[in-house]
Amino acid sequence: MFPEDDLLGVDLVIPDYSALARNGRKVWGVALTHAHEDHVGSLPYLLRAVSAPVYGTPLTIGLAKNKSRASAPFHDVQPRQPVSIGPFEVEWIRVGHSIPDACALAIKTPAGMLVFSGDFKFDQTPIDGRPTDLARFAELGEAGVLALFLDSTNVERPGVTPSERVVGESLQKLFPLVRGRILVTTFASNIHRFQQIFDAAARVDRKVAAAGRSIAENLKIASQLGYVSIPPSMLVSVEEANRLPDDRVLLLTTGSQGEPLSALTRISTGAHKQVKLKAGDTVIFSASPIPGNEAMVARTINFLFKHGAEVIYGPHSGGHVSGHASQEELRMMINLVRPRYVVPVHGEARHLVLNGRLARSVGLPGLEALIGENGTIFEFGPASGRIAGKEDAGNVLVDGLGVGDVGDEVLRDRKHLAHDGVFIALVAVAKETGDIVRPPDLVTRGFVYEHGPHTEKLLEGARDVVGAAVDRCRQRERTDFGAIRTEVREALAKFLFEKTGRRPMVLPLLVEV
Question: Annotated active-site positions, please?
Fold first, then answer.
């Protein structure tokens, strides 16, 4: 997941996989539905916790393997081709989504058939001409399905999700109207969207450059595997694009979610080394904000407007359609599969509850909805299903090269520093007597401006407070560094709050001389 605003400095949030490795449990394999980040992004960390082969359709495996660089065996599979994985037989079933090669999973178990919908929608005019395999879902429903694990993302949306082709039609109408450069931002794995952008750009004779490493890598892999067709000489480098007239240029960028280090965010703040915004540029957001990212996206849009760009965004811009099923498609999937149990997945708490209600409203005889959360244990028998318990399945924070070493204490300290800054007191104490050898050196960061007109008086008072705290320790014959640090910290914190109304992090550093 993307880190929320209160996870200061955190790069990624991944699941806690320790439960999979406990108690001698056997993981027979990893079955991937598609190659979006929220489905394969933490695969490298999973493969550190368990040793298991990975299965998926060719594009999914190509993108996941490039990201994970793990030593685990990766296997390509084809839709409707059953694969034995341990005691299970797994079949991939093609579904429509916003990336090629997306599939649902039919898993034959000793207790019965389980169907995982994956991310899907019933797009009747898909870009690659490969619609959702309705016939196979109907066959499974006729044979009998014990449980359907159902995507909940768009359960709040009535009706049917529009076709991906709607975006291509909108872009083909929009591009001829733009005289300056066009910048389009979307998810780096949205291969179908890339194809439509290239097609629309070719109609107006624009060259395309990828400003973002992940987009360039994904385009290369998708092109090699035949999932995207790029006209010869149409894809150029950013350097080449900078030498072309503005009306001949289209830039594909990452950053549709306002990620701080993404290409578009750096472009919007003027920090990108190769791309500088100018009046006449048009930026198209071909993605909607993931819940929780709205503030970051809004910040990026504001910066773009400040630099004179025209920005096209929002649900009615025509630049994006969802890849997830709306209410009528969810009902249709339930009616095709006709499960005994529906387990809502892939959504926030309200989505899961609403999807459970929607499933019950379909009216299939005997259908039950089981509502769980990450860590919930579902137990199924040949004619039964229930929630059997709960495993610890929290989140693990990834910060740089550290995995799980940023906990509550570290985050609390970061928040403290972010709110009120830090006040450092360097105190030199005589080894023999415990006296302060020289006036304490005081350093502040993020608390007060050290060279401000009123700061010197504050710092002089703080030096006096430090001296008095050390004297109190000597009088009580508590001259160990731990006792002195505690006394100085508490005295300084009280003094600084009384004088400023702020509570910086106080760090006394003692040196024996």
Answer: 151, 324
